Amino acid sequence: MYLTQGLHRVLQQRPDAVATVFGQRRTSFSLLVDRVARLAGALSKLGVSGGDRIALLAQNSDRSVECLLAAWWLGAVTCPLNTRWSAPEIAYALKDCGVRVLVVDDAFASLVPELKALAPELGPVIHAGEQATPEGLLAWEDLIAAGESREDARPAGDALAAILYTGGTTGTPKGVMLSHANFWISSVARMAEVPNQVQAVTLLVAPLFHVAGLGRLVSQLVTGSTSVLLPAFRAETVLATLQDERVTDVVLVPSMLQMLLDHPSFPSCDLRHLDRIIHGASPISPGLLERAMKALPNCGFQSAYGMTETAATACSNGPYRWSEGTTLGPQALAAGRVCYGNEVRVVDADGREVPSNTVGEITIRGANVMQGYWNKPAETRAALRGGWLFTGDGGFMDNAGYVHIVDRVKDMIISGGENVYSAEVEGALSRHPAVAACAVIGVPSTAWGEAVHAVVVLRPGETVSAEALRAHCRSALAGYKCPKTIEFREALPLSPAGKVLKTVLREPFWGSSARQIN
């Protein structure tokens, strides 16, 4: 169960198959393995050995894939860093996990002097960009050309494969420790239910520092399928790539899907070969899913529920395809049923399992669950209890085993003593034809403790009043759940993974208060 295992298999069966596509470069699996083995040899000469950490601060590219694979080939640990972090946040991660080598691309090469000042113990820095290598950095292609091919270390399944940093909105980020087995088991278990076809052409536009992007790359390596890489999400570029590369599979967060559907060039794109969209990272609204299914009737829509701590997917749902008269019931909009290799139960505040259809905290157990948080034993003990991962997600399981997410536990709004789940209110708002996107938060209220507040982005050319939206909500929800106030914005603040940053939305109302509840 080591993550380079798929490379050896595809070398025996289809060595000339295309492994990666990046811009004009098309790399076969045989060439990829040769470059990875040489890069591993070069890293070894720089002093990197098994268990050492190699940080990657770069956008998606074929060289980013080579970096990850070379680390695993050597038995080292990859640390893909959030490309939207500030220099102090990046330096924190570099120091926290004791990085031996840092790899940067053109977008971040200019940041190296500041990072070295903030983290003076930082070792060699490798430039993996397309432009000329800056002075003081090591050139990617020179290292590979001079590197001596090294044998694959084939680390054991429980060997640490990656440290993925998560959180950071309250306190310092946590480094999630994921082993080779965590990734491999998660990928293979998912594919037992949701096959990853060998001939599939998958677009990797979700960042590789996020578990959705990295987890999908692992699946591509297991099956020996083609990965098309884009450095960042740009709706126009994504649509052109989906069409020109005849992409069959893509992983998107709902906000990305929304932007594709809204783009002016969407109606003219030929996407008939797109067979499956896997959506996750945040719940999809019923309005958006219905719209997407109707716009792409040949495509199956599959939801994936999981988190960094579960090496991606723990529950899945679908795929669902459009047909006339299609209506999405509660189960179609659920996170889904538990995947093979996982167990899920819903518990109360004391950790006791609750009956079906009762809201509590979702907990997960399985061989895909993380080893813990790097250098954070207290946080590890809080998250891993009695063999179960406490996710922080509030939800329930129905009588058919479908897991329904209602909110983050910490995001639940308590208004007038009643529990209000923002996802439910967002679902109602999203069904209004004028609404493109929305987010619901709790804001301070002297009368109710907290009041339901909605932030709404309208579809291009649409207008609607706050009162009309409240009336729309009242037709589907109890009065206490309907937004007391509504504000309109041009866009919602998003994380690099496409999740709505509710902490940013709350800031004007709650300020710096650590206790964001009344």
From TrEMBL:
The enzyme's E.C. designation: 6.2.1.3
Alphabetized GO MF terms: long-chain fatty acid-CoA ligase activity
Keywords of this entry: Ligase
Domain of life of the native organism: Bacteria
Residue ranges annotated for the AMP-binding enzyme C-terminal domain, each copy included: 424-499
InterPro entries named in the record: AMP-bd_C, AMP-bd_C_sf, AMP-binding_CS, AMP-dep_synth/lig_dom, ANL_N_sf
Domain AMP-dependent synthetase/ligase: 9-374
PROSITE patterns: AMP_BINDING (PS00455)
NCBIfam families referenced in this protein's UniProt entry, alphabetically: PRK06187.1
Protein name: Long-chain acyl-CoA synthetase
Organism encoding this protein: Hydrogenophaga palleronii
